[in-house]
Every structure is written in structure tokens, then in C-alpha cells.
Design goal:
Helix content is about 20%, strand content about 35%. The protein has about 400 residues and is an alpha+beta fold. It folds into 2 domains: about 230 residues, 3-Layer(aba) Sandwich (Rossmann fold); about 120 residues, OB fold (Dihydrolipoamide Acetyltransferase, E2P). A 6-stranded mixed beta sheet has the order 8-9-10-5-11-12, sandwiched between helices. The chain has a 5-stranded antiparallel beta sheet with strand order 15-14-13-16-22, with no helix packed on it. It has a 5-stranded antiparallel beta sheet with strand order 17-21-18-19-20, with no helix packed on it.
Length: about 400
């Protein structure tokens, strides 16, 4: 995608999108609270969180559909916080696609260019339709397309204007599961091809992890944790992130002693090892392990693998076969339920409901957690209705 021309003539290179101290309040309700983050130019960035966490309000402030109560939206060093939506080098693809039903696919894609007075658009429209793999569909109407094809038209209509930043507001929410997964790969392919900055808002963890280079997990208007999909999944730092991004077994205990770069924690009389130095003896500690990193073993787990040094006795209360794995629920002596996922690779030793087992895992697969409840926020306060401008 060509570089955008600056006001004085010379082309501007790629610019990071920066949100600095961004805040949005609707009366006494604060939707976004002192949000500061940088979206690297040319990256696929996801704002991930449940309804009410502030992610959509953040997107609308970048698009110019909401005015920040405080803070700045910057592209490079350029402050665009108070610019009107059509004055920003930003386009948005909405969940509803917002296509004109009475116009053909070609006319929908060309709409923004024609609105700006550009006349010879046939060639660039054809190129854009080829990019989204809709060559030959130009004369059809949106009503003659599938949901996935309509979404591609919306993406093409936005990208033809060469935005520095493309905002994606839950664009896959209306699609069925199979098509949604297909479109995840398609959007990533398109982003890699054009090299623009994509900012994707979603509540779907799989969607964010499949497409994004970097994910910001949001909670109560703030970023709870920022990192790559692997970093967030393998090393969540709070209960909120651990519980939102996948499933986790969370345990609370008391520090017994620090052994080098490991901490021995007592959990209801069971000693468990956690990486890192978690605090002084007697202090509280919280940590977790993913269900697929644990095993439900009958007997001594170290006979199976000497590295399985963390072990909690329990009783199997539920067994579910899901195809990819067998999922166990194990109740501990203190009545906490732990999840264990055993991959369906063939040859597994299965246990049954009611069997006594030991839930065992390697200490290095344990992640320490900061204090926090992990509670989900209330619903995001509703913004006054604002009509979204057509991409132009």
C-alpha cells in the first residue's frame, strides 16, 4: 500500500498509533480510564475483553465517533483526537458491514473514491476485489453474497481508501463457526499483504490469538495485560487474564520458603512449587496451571515422569470426551474442582468417574499471579447513538 502524503507534500512513512492517557466518561460512568498503549505500525493488534470492558469505546475514539473526555489519539506525533472521522486516515469495518443493498459490489467498493471526486476507479476496484478473492463478483448485489463474502466487500471498501489504520469492530460476530475460522485466516492474509495497521476489537479469545501479533486484554477500561498470544496464555499475570484467556486451575496458598528461584507454597497441607520468588514465608500466594499441562494419574505420578513434582490427590467427579481430548474434573480434599485435559493421541490410560487420582504437573508449567478477584466488569455504559459514516 502506498505511503500517505503529508500536508506539506512529502510522503509520510509508517506511523505507530498511540493512545496517551485516554479517558471516556458518560456522566459518572467511566468506560475508558487513563488508557495508554502503542500499536506498532503495520501490526495486527487486538483489543480483547468481555462486554463492558471499554474496548469498543476505545475503538470509537480512534475512529472519531466518540470524543475523549481526556487524553490523546496520536498517529506518530500527529494528534488526531479532535479531528472529524472523515479527516482521519482511519477506516472502520463494522459487524453489520453497512453495505448499500441497492449498489453492486463494484459500486460499494468504489463509493469512497467516487465521493472524493476520483473518476477512473475501475482498475483499482478490480485490484481490490482480487485482493479479497472476489474477482468476478463485481456486478452482484450484497444480497446475492454470503456473509463471509459481504465481509470481504466491506474490507475492500475500507482498504481502497488506503487508511493507515483499519479498525475492525467485531467483524466476524455474525458468521457461523466454520466461516468465522476461515475468515480469521483471510483477514490475517490480507493484513500481511497490504501492510496496514489493523486494530481488531473482539470478545473471542480464539479469534484474537489466531490473528493478532499483539493482544491487549482489557478490564474495566484499562489494559490488564499486553503481550503476544503465547505470552498471555503461558504467563498470565492476573486471575482476570488467566480466567478470560482459556481455562485455568487457580490455587491459593501460603509461602513456606524460597528455594533459589522457586517458591514452596502450602495449599491446604499440600506443598507445591512455583517458579520465581513469591514473597516472605507466611505471605499469601496465588498461582495457576492450565488443564492441558496437568495429568490425572492413578498412583505415584513420578513413576510415570520424575519431573511431575507438583501433585494434588483427588477424586474424579466427571469425564467428558470431546474428540480432541478427554476432559476430567477432579475434586480435591478441600472441595475445589480442578480440570485436566488429556489429548486424544491414542494409548492413554483412562480413568473413570469415582476413581482416586493424583493431579500432577511440572513446576515450570505453573504461573504465579498477582492479587485480584478475576471478576468480570459490569456492562459498558451505553454511548449516545452516533451514526457511523460510510468509509471514505
Amino acid at each position: 500500500m502506498p505511503e500517505r502524503s503529508g500536508a506539506d507534500g512529502p510522503a509520510l512513512g509508517p506511523r505507530d498509533l498511540r493512545l496517551v492517557g485516554l479517558r471516556k466518561a458518560f456522566g459518572s460512568a467511566v468506560a475508558v480510564d487513563d488508557l495508554t498503549l502503542t500499536v506498532p505500525a503495520g501490526s495486527f493488534f487486538a483489543l480483547l475483553g468481555p462486554s463492558g470492558c471499554g474496548k469498543t469505546t476505545t475503538l470509537r475514539m480512534v475512529a472519531g465517533l466518540e470524543t475523549p473526555t481526556a487524553g490523546q489519539v496520536l498517529l506518530g506525533e500527529e494528534d488526531i483526537s479532535r479531528r472529524r472521522p472523515y479527516e482521519r486516515p482511519v477506516n472502520t469495518v463494522f459487524q453489520s458491514y453497512a453495505l448499500f443493498p441497492h449498489l453492486s459490489v463494484e459500486e460499494n467498493v468504489a463509493f469512497g473514491l467516487r465521493r472524493r471526486g476520483r473518476k477512473n476507479v475501475k482498475g483499482v476496484v478490480a485490484e481490490m476485489l482480487e485482493l479479497v478473492e472476489l474477482g468476478g463478483f463485481g456486478r452482484r448485489r450484497p444480497g446475492q453474497l454470503s456473509g463471509g463474502q459481504q465481509q470481504r466487500v466491506a474490507v475492500a471498501r475500507a482498504l481502497i481508501n488506503e487508511p493507515e489504520v483499519l479498525l475492525l469492530d467485531e467483524p466476524l460476530g455474525a458468521l457461523d463457526l466454520k466461516l468465522r475460522r476461515q475468515m480469521q485466516l483471510e483477514l490475517k492474509r490480507i493484513q500481511t499483504r497490504v501492510g496496514s495497521t489493523f486494530v481488531h476489537v473482539t470478545h473471542d479469545q480464539e479469534e484474537a490469538m489466531t490473528m493478532a501479533d499483539t493482544i491487549a486484554v482489557m478490564n474495566a477500561g484499562r489494559v490488564e495485560q499486553l503481550g503476544t498470544p503465547r505470552e498471555l496464555y503461558e504467563r498470565p499475570v492476573t486471575r482476570y487474564v488467566a480466567n478470560f484467556l482459556g481455562q485455568s486451575n487457580i490455587l491459593d496458598g501460603s509461602v513456606v520458603e524460597v528455594r533459589g528461584n522457586e517458591t514452596l507454597v502450602d495449599v491446604h497441607g499440600v506443598g507445591l512449587l512455583v517458579p520465581g520468588r513469591l514473597g516472605a514465608p507466611g505471605s499469601t500466594a496465588s498461582f495457576g496451571v492450565r488443564p492441558e499441562k496437568a495429568l490425572a494419574v492413578a498412583g505415584d505420578p513420578t513413576h510415570r515422569d520424575p519431573a511431575l513434582r507438583n501433585a494434588i490427590p483427588g477424586t474424579v467427579t466427571d469425564v467428558s470426551f470431546t474428540g480432541l481430548s478427554t476432559q476430567y474434573v477432579v475434586r480435591t480434599p478441600w472441595d475445589q474442582e480442578l480440570g485436566v485435559f488429556t489429548q486424544n493421541a491414542g494409548g492413554e490410560t483412562l480413568v473413570r468417574r469415582g476413581d482416586p487420582v493424583v493431579v500432577a504437573w511440572r513446576p515450570e508449567h505453573t504461573f504465579p499471579l498477582a492479587a485480584g478477584t478475576g471478576a468480570m466488569p459490569d456492562d459498558e455504559p451505553a454511548a449516545p447513538p452516533v451514526m457511523a459514516p460510510v468509509s471514505s
